[in-house]
């Protein structure tokens, strides 16, 4: 399993590196303020600390909902004296914006996903991290030690956290058995009863569906779309709009939509499923036959983080097998620490296999991880739609 | 005279001289009085408006989202040529107008009763009833409406009791119209009430003496005299709706975006501040036109 994954990660790293060099070279001339001109991120030269000093008493996080829960934040606060202040962001774009200017001297860390990582790194908003200060790093599964999305030229710009799929969430009274295809959220039968995230990266979900159902479009990667492939995905989403009750901005919005039976089906994170099931709402989730998009998250450290010592304490804490297991079960995702599996079994029998903490490669490969769409398609040609086009198109879909 | 006495007199003399100067040169007096307020107005308000306008002519680097100070009118061109933004601008203005008309229609009879019919005690009670919702947080009131309008909400529960089919108002533009009309209603009632209360009783008596029927008096005397008050109220309801983005975010559904939501998205999510600035110029321009019209109708005398 390991070899195949490593090869895949390696290939992705090469592709990403190449496309970035080209993209950045193309951008170099137009900017009047000094933008990133080389493939080396602007903060690459910053030396990370070699030891952890006394905590500053505070830690300001930008996180996904469900990533700073009482269960593991409270013991951390008691142990380290670092008071955690978390701000939830609804999308990767929002995270990038909040972390602009290195976190502005306000935010310390961000739980960034793969589609935000490179923007943060090349924007100079996050800085190198000394992974040797995180004891559990050595227990990480191989593909998450130096993944291409947070490690550039051997420099780590963060520590991997958890990963998982975007799922199809459905009401069990409407769907006695799990829908087998994403086609249900494009089906006019459920007019006004569908919800999907208010997030441009959702175009990739449509592209993934088309990749499996309309092979004549020739989509090979849902994040690398030519104009015609992109138009097909956008058209599908425009046809879907009349079916949408609401584009959700925060997970809590989707939870309330399902609780009040405003919707019966939608795209979600496993977190919503767990929260709704805990509240006895008859819902379940599934990964349909077409596969799913997903995320691999990294805690990154802001260039101007005002509380770096507390941040390193957090790195140590959040990587321990027990906390990894707690978060994995709470959110419904897969931990990167290979020792978390046993802890998960202790917390909830069967959860290690349920959330794939033993990570079979076949499961890892069904997920198309979020990444920043670039103009370069990975074949040297600049025919693909860059992310700014995705954002504009998204406004035209939802507006 | 001793030296001490002279020294005592000097400060008093200086104050008198300043007073005399201020009296002779009235512009100095005006400058002193207006200075602090005017400085605040120019620096905080006008300067930020100018900065907004300047930023609207810049653009961003699409990858790093850093602002690039290259002068161009692409942002405005997008606003005019892209159908999506035209639709969002039109939707915002149309809903602001609908809310204003709804509030005017609801507020007029209410304010009339308060100003001219109700007894003193009833008047006080009605005043309290109008102002009481303003004590609760805006968000609490919007969330209350979500609980009323959503699928399992109070409205559908009541309809079910009456054996009527359920309404699906939650997360639609109708929901936004209802919530906005409710939230801004007090801002229409109060100026209308003030205008109606100022109509001299003698005018109505004169109308009656000259044989005008009730409807005629209302149409020809009361309504024209109350109009400045209604227009003053409409400035509030129109501008508050025009600039809102919280209600569309919480109550709106698919295709409920307002100008404010797109501005918010461009500032807080996409980090495209130049485009947000260009879009933010639209409500400023709309309000400028609206206020010009309102002045024609005498709204500012009523305020």
| Rg over CA atoms of chain A | 20 Å
Topology of chain B as a string of helices (H) and strands (E): HHEEHHHHHHHHHHHH
Helix content of chain A: 25-40%
Our count of domains of chain B comes out at 2
How much helical structure, as a percent, in the residues of chain B?
Answer: over 70%
Features:
heterodimer; A: 399 residues; alpha/beta; D-Maltodextrin-Binding Protein, domain 2; 2 domains; 14 helices; 14 strands; globular; disordered N terminus; B: 303 residues; mainly alpha; MetI-like fold; 2 strands; 1% strand; flat
3D structure, described in words:
The complex is a heterodimer of chains A (399) and B (303). Chain A has 14 helices and 14 strands. In chain A, helix 5 (202-213) crosses helix 6 (227-240), helix 6 (227-240) runs parallel beside helix 14 (387-398) and helix 7 (251-259) crosses helix 8. In chain A, strands 1, 2, 3, 6, 12, 13 and 14 form a seven-stranded mixed sheet that branches. A five-stranded mixed sheet of chain A has the order 9-8-10-7-11, covered by helices on one side. In chain A, a hairpin with a 2-residue loop joins strand 4 (151-152) and strand 5 (155-156). Chain A folds into two domains: 2-161 and 295-369, Periplasmic binding protein-like II (D-Maltodextrin-Binding Protein, domain 2, 3-Layer(aba) Sandwich), CATH 3.40.190; 165-293 and 382-398, D-Maltodextrin-Binding Protein, domain 2, CATH 3.40.190.10. Chain A has helices at residues 2-28, 70-80, 92-98, 114-122, 202-213, 227-240, 251-259, 270-278, 308-318, 321-331, 340-347, 351-354, 361-366, 387-398, and strands spanning 58-63, 83-88, 109-112, 151-152, 155-156, 159-165, 167-171, 194-197, 244-248, 265-268, 283-286, 292-301, 334-335, 367-369. With 303 residues, chain B is mainly α. Chain B contains 14 helices and two strands; from the N terminus they run H-H-E-E-H-H-H-H-H-H-H-H-H-H-H-H. Chain B has helices at residues 3-24, 26-55, 74-81, 83-117, 120-131, 138-149, 154-161, 173-197, 201-209, 214-243, 246-251, 259-269, 273-296, 299-302; strands at 59-60, 67-68. In chain B, helix 1 (3-24) packs across helix 2 (26-55). The N and C termini of chain B lie far apart (59 Å). The interface between A and B is large, with 40 and 38 residues.
